[in-house]
Protein 1
Amino acid sequence: MRDVVRRVSAATPPGRDRALDALRALAILGVVLGHWLVTALVADSGTLHVESPLGHLPEITAVSWVFQTLAVFFLVGGYVAARGHTAARARGESHGRWTAARLGRFFRPVVPLLAVWTVASTVMLGCGVPWQTVYTLGKLVLSPLWFLLVLAALTAATPLVARVHPLWPLAVVLHVDVIRFGFDGPSWLGGLNVPAGWLVPYCLGALLARRGPLAPAAAWTLLLGGAGATGLLVAFAGYPGAMVGVPGAPVSNLNPPTLAAVTFGLAQCGAAVLLLGPLRRALRRPVAWAAVAALNLGAVTVFLWHQTAMIAVTAGGLLTADRLGLPPLTGLHTVPDGHDWVLARLGWLPLFAGALLVCVAAFHAYERTTRKARAPQRRPGRRTETRHA
């Protein structure tokens, strides 16, 4: 292990901003743990359907505030893409070639996921598994792809959106919500919030890449102002308290993103900027940096396969319980309507993590084969001329 840590440290470019990788790793871990904690596959009359403990236990709504970290991922994505595109142009690399390289990193790991689940779905249907169950599992596995599609679209459009001020997409979200909720506008209008809502943190990241770091006072303003605005919207404007979708709820803050989700994301971005300094100090330790670097090497693979890992453990537990004549296992495939379910689910998390490690070991090569040597990232705190970025 010490040898691995030394090799990771030696292979890290001196100018790389490790804190950005740490933020990306924290965002991925937040999404994974959030899905594992608020998604329940409930066994009912021979089929499986999805429920959420947030729909039964509103007192644990705060879980969604901790683990809904997508805004941080888009913040880092905007910063890195803006810097990377500037560096590519300085090297004489065309926009098309740069875009193809980045999109390849996003989508090549999708190929084995689709292949495995095409075969698995065919086998399940051939073995008499109800169509409803196959549909539920397939939707659960494929639903994270929306994130990659949005991130890919914003990445491809980086030259166009990198100079857009975050207030412009924020204004779009505000007006769409006013029309949808204030004037009973058409629901399809919310589709505009999908690109606009995630453009806000993405453009903020690009703005930091272009103009330099936020002052601590500005970061605190984002954090406190975003949190305060979110609280007011939830308390007085009728927005849901959960920052993730809840099955059966009339309104979701995430699908499509609402104004509350965007203001909450701005608060997270403010917190992320404030964390950059402490993270840089913490990641001077070789062991801590090796863990962050390892997760970043397989970040897309972890994101794509974490639902499959949960499904594998759930299905294995269901088959084992059925073979042994046991009732459905609490926290795994029972209705998430009590605190005993929450405690039991925490106990299942290590098994989910173990299954995910198996998936990553099997499929991470599809992600790593696309990673080429890149120019080192510069710290947001070090402003340089564009040609040197």
Protein 2
Amino acid sequence: MSDTEAAARPAVKLTLLTLTAMVVGSMVGAGVFSLPRRFAQETGVAGALIAWAVAGAGMLMLAFVFQTLAVRRPDLDAGVYAYAKAGFGEYLGFFAAFGYWASACVGNVTYWVLIMSTVGAVAPVLGDGDTVTAVVISSAGLWGFFLLIRRGVKEAAAINRIVTAAKIVPIVFFVILSLFYFEPSVFADNFFGADYAGSLFNQVRGTMLATVFVFLGVEGASVYSRHAKRREDVGRATVLGFLSVFAVFASVTIVSYGLLPMAEIADLRQPSMAGVLESAVGTWGEVFISVGLIVSVLGAYLAWTLMAAEVLFVAAKDKDMPRFLARSTAADVPDNALLMTTCLSQVVLVVTLFSEDAFNFALDLTSALSLIPFLLAAAFAAKIARRPGLPDVVGRSTRGELVVALVATAYTVFLLYAAGLKFVLVSFILYAPATVLFVKSRREQGRRVFSPGEAAICAVTVAGAAVGLAALAVGWIEL
């Protein structure tokens, strides 16, 4: 079958249930199994409660933003990227597409690192998921999933629904069982944090990227908007998916403080949820959580890889990426976009060999890369909410939508501050060379490469990348 015939075939149509499962499946991944240690390294109970309140409110506003935009602009597919382009031009739209895609690719690497670290508890040759052997095995899994997904979106989505249901069980079981072994005195000792945690503000700031990581996927339904049976289902799935997992994420973190001292949790190997449960019930608890993590990682990897390829594919169809990325198979799979996604994940996987803490580095970089796309989407929602004469959407007036969009925008700006200069510079190092794809696309169309404004943005990006490389070279920042 030719590419033209394949493109003419109707896309797989997804229901509200399927879209919600995809959102939950992409959100409930490796991150939740690593939360106890990551939070304990930064904050006590008080800081964790504040961090979850800030993150929950901010991400809920972003969920509302995606819900509203799905109905306001049903003409825009692949949400995050399309919203940035519609609001702020092709070059920033390109950056949003690339940043979101790169974030998903780096996020996939965290999954392989964590699953190797899990097996490393019984196979020391795998270490913490960052040894040569671990990278080789992870690479085999990475390309195995490439072959699976290439069979078709429909089959992959069906597998994801099954995996989503399976991986929720050990997480809920962990929370319930932890309540039976909960020690109020330990919880009280952990309330204000250990001596190394610093001020309450620094504790909250230090956990922000971790909360972003576990909430990535809240925009998943908007990415698949072209497959939805009804546009209204995109927004509903976004909010339902977010609300269904928020309580679980917060609970996993908070109950852990009632089982072990904060410093001991901070020293656990990943997945730290397994170590916390082992301290309460013994070895079988660690095994149970470890098996649950493996299932969770495989499901989340599937969802994230699909979303990443979808963004590249739609951007290429809109002529904002080179045309070779717009090719799809008879099974409606964007195969070249999928191949490019797998290749970047492979490169980042090798880079983890040179990182001091492979998992935390990949986690933070994943979050940092997603912030620019989120910021542009929230700002676009604020921009269109100011237009008079728009009908009400999902029970909110345009004034209410403006408030929601402004709060979401302020939240993402705060996240950029919380990320710190290190990850902003590392992000520039990835963004700058990606401009080659934008240039190639413009030349394929016989168009001028940059407008004056785009040239200025490109200059800032290249300068930021140069500073980032210099900082790495002299040791100012480390991987």
Protein 3
Amino acid sequence: MARLFGSINREHRRVVLAAMAGTTIEWYDFFVYAISAGLVFATQYFSALGKDALILSFATVGISFFFRPIGAVIAGHLGDRLGRRAMLIATLLLMGVSTVLIGLVPGTASIGVAAPILLVVLRIVQGLSAGGEWGGAALLAVEHAPAGRRGLYGAFPQIGVPLGLLLANGALALAAAVTTPAQFLAWGWRIPFLLSFVLIVVGFAIRSRVAESPVFEEVRRTRSRSSLPLVPLVRHHGPLVLLGAVLFAANNAVGYMTTGGYVQSYAVKTLHLDRSTVLAAVMVSAVAWLVSTLIGGHLADRIGRIVVYRIGFAVQLVWMVPFFALLDTANVGLLVLALVLFSVGLGFTYGPQAALYAEMYPTHVRYSGAAISYAIGAVLGGAFAPTIAEALQSSTGTVYSVCAYLAGMTVLGLVASFFIRDRRDVPLSDTEPAGGPVVAGDAVP
């Protein structure tokens, strides 16, 4: 990672750092909630539901995903009209404030039914923010990138996700380590949420210093911005938006086994492993995910975005059954091995994403297209993946039903990859026609 980062000049380094730092903070906030849903919220906010408390707790993770497309539409419209930088600052503040407030919501024992209602409302705000964040961060990095390096530059905002996962698990593991189990459930879990305030200040300081995307500035100068980007996007690129969504859904469903809290919950509550140990294991896997994501972005510049995607999906598919077999051993070392190797496929299906999505759309609808594809894919893949997994495992009594579900999602992503054209050699300038979707077999504009 140091070698790849060091190969970027100072000006561009500031850009990728801003994209990576902001995305890290956004996803730290998002994952702290998702992990806490599996470890804490069923007890603190949904205990009255008995055995269904955990399923509903995971469902609150999924509810926010339905608001991500709304956030993507709003941020995409404003990002294509006003610029990428302003939206990145707005989404960062929205996510951070809602996360701090979640850390202050009293439990059901204190304020009754108002507690879970407030929790869900703030989770919805997180969903709106997450829907707009990724598109802006990805485009800022990719549109600043020199020719032939868009895959690598685009991988830096991507590693904000495993970095966010690493920080979220680390903060919760530390809170669990310095408190008793009773103290952690009572108040210790709130500390990582409140720490988000510090991260907001850091993220704002970094992002406020970054210049606007040069590609967008060119569009601004030529007055070729669309007054309503969603209309030409749907009219000319609708099928491509859906293909991009399916591609991401396959990655997202698998990723949310760890980021969405299912593995943490299953390992602690079903396999009876120590909470801090499980969180530490996920932190190790987050490092592997980070490294493989960077490698995936780097390889995407060399062998193509779609080729790297297919390698990643193949790894996911091949490792699916061994992953769950090792998980069920309840052995910590084998759990770490399972998660680390699982992360290789995740990285290869995530590293090329920013560059691929940016290259799929012309500049005047690029923010909208990338953000909406990403948000719809998150709904299809990640929204209720932990809930579905918990329900499947509870009803069948085996984690292999979860394995079958994730294998099916992976196959869908692999199939979708054969209908998307790799356009890594096409300039990002707004000169391409706003014709139909760039899919397999189309001529490059």
